[in-house]
Amino acid sequence: MFLPFLPMLPIQILLNNLLYDFSQSTIPTDEVDQEYIEKPKRWDIHFIRRFMMFLGPVSSLFDFLTFFIMLFIFNASEPLFQTAWFIESLSSQTLVIFVIRTKKSPFWRSRPSKLLLLGSMAIIAFALILPYTPLGTIFQFMKPPATFFIALAAILGAYIVLAEIVKSWFYKRYSYRLEQTLIPPRKIGIYLSKTAKLVQNMVAVICLRFESEISIDSLVEDLKECLGYALDAEQIFHNLNYIRRSGLISINWHERTVKREKAMKDYVTRHVMGELWPKIAGDWQRASEILEAKYGRLNSEYLELLNRQLYPTA
Fold it and tell me: Which pTM value belongs to this model?
């Protein structure tokens, strides 16, 4: 609306889309992280929608930043502006794939396939070289000044960093929504698997304990009392890791402690006290009685939620 010309010509948009499609054609050669396939995942369209709502504006922000830099710093003519935005938009959307393809943070802890990496880098290299070739003239590009590439590196670097920060925050806040063990399908009926039952008892103990951070050893002892049977240490640690990756707790392995995270209350309020409650109400009530007798007090925030569920008319 504020430009006296098109930010990209139709033929440039078509080329941009074609090159991006080429770069993403190698995605089938990539693999998801091993931890992602350890347990079944839920198909949650609300999770996908939220991911788009949080990550989408980050991309738009840097598009507008590119507009501002080209118009007010470079005083770009129409061909220079179109060339710059073509290179920036193609490079940013190609690079951000490496951020959003994994929940690991930082993203380079998850290695992409060689074909995806090489294909993406080749497309970016082609976009950078294109304005200096006869083919660039056909698409009405012009040679950008050397200073543009300094600005481009800064824009892309800042974009990737901010996208990584937003992604990391998002998964800490919402990744539990993908887990079938934490949110079983409604068609499962009135029974939970033994693993799901153990996970829910672990959540109950971690929430009801007065302290926000407790030792793993005391957690195991509390679970033994609440469940009434011997526990497999390996399974406990496996489930702790699982809950940690879901963003509900953090673990200090050196100190052997577990700490509740902010996402825990959202999970308990929306799901434990919701569709899961008929299956686990007895476990929470038993845990509250045992922990109160043992420690003399409970976490008031979660105790209030529990009492609200047990005595709705009180």
Answer: 0.80
